[in-house]
Write a structure and sequence with these properties.
The complex is a heterodimer of chains A (113) and B (112). With 113 residues, chain A is mainly β. Chain A has strands spanning 5-7, 10-13, 19-24, 31-38, 42-50, 53-56, 65-71, 74-79, 88-95, 103-104, 108-112. Chain A is built from no helices and eleven strands. In chain A, strands 2, 4, 5, 6, 9, 10 and 11 form a seven-stranded mixed β-sheet that branches. Chain A has a four-stranded antiparallel β-sheet with strand order 1-3-8-7, with no helix packed on it. Chain A starts with a strand and ends with a strand. In chain B, strands 2, 4, 5, 9, 10 and 11 form a six-stranded mixed β-sheet that branches. In chain B, strands 1-3-8-7-6 form a five-stranded antiparallel β-sheet, with no helix packed on it. Classes of the chains: A mainly beta (113), B mainly beta (112).
Chain lengths: 113, 112
């Protein structure tokens, strides 16, 4: 398996623009997680899905953030409009219920200027 | 509020010596704990885990200790090697959910 695949690896955008981050989980995994890494808060859970259904989105910082999982093999995290303070590395991870731990993707480094 | 805390942002250790990374948590309902290792430009990778019913788990050079009364866990690496230089995150899971809460990470540098 190719692991969890995230795209793009790097994204530089101007403030106010819409940004879409993409994730393909490991085939067969039924849980998907979006995390954001910052110096201050470490790895912060934004939202997670189980069987394509959002279970907990309490970590989504503002209404500017939204996430979808239209099917078991694809998820998006969208920021609209983006702001400089959204600059961070965003990780997607997946797991199978009952497994103890996640498999992470390589992350998307977002820079909003 | 951070439920999982790693109070040491960085640690430097001489090659061959022991590295001890610490982690504290606030929620007594956490029942499973993990350590992840992260190299630059890569995603975190699973290192070692421990269930709340145990107080120690060992895997080669890596040992995790859990002190439930103190809500504290630690990762010991013996002997430390230069390839261990990375950021280490501890994570904890509540017994009712599937999500893990991560700490802020500790950057370990092993000096040859």
């Amino acid at each position: 398996d190719a692991g969890v695949i995230q795209s793009p690896r790097h994204e530089v955008t101007e403030m106010g623009q819409e940004v879409t981050l993409r994730c393909k989980p490991i085939s067969g995994h039924n849980s998907l997680f979006w995390y954001r890494q910052t110096m201050m808060r470490g790895l912060e859970l934004l939202i997670y899905f189980n069987n394509n259904v959002p279970i907990d989105d309490s970590g989504m910082p503002e209404d500017r953030f939204s996430a979808k999982m239209p099917n078991a093999s694809f998820s998006t995290l969208k920021i609209q409009p983006s702001e400089p303070r959204d600059s961070a590395v965003y990780f997607c991870a997946s797991s199978l219920t009952g497994q103890h731990g996640y498999t992470f993707g390589s992350g998307t480094r977002l820079t909003v200027v | 509020d951070q439920q999982v805390k790693q109070n040491s942002p960085s640690l430097s250790v001489q090659e061959g010596r022991i590295s001890i990374l610490n982690c504290d948590y606030t929620n007594s309902m956490f029942d499973y704990f993990l350590w992840y290792k992260k190299y630059p430009a890569e995603g975190p990778t699973f290192l070692i885990s421990i269930s709340s019913i145990k107080d120690k788990n060992e895997d080669g050079r890596f040992t995790v200790f859990l002190n439930k009364s103190a809500k504290h866990l630690s990762l010991h690496i013996v002997p430390s090697q230069p390839g261990d230089s990375a950021v280490y995150f501890c994570a904890a899971r509540g017994h009712t959910g599937n999500q893990f809460y991560f700490g802020t990470g500790t950057s370990l540098t092993v000096i040859p």
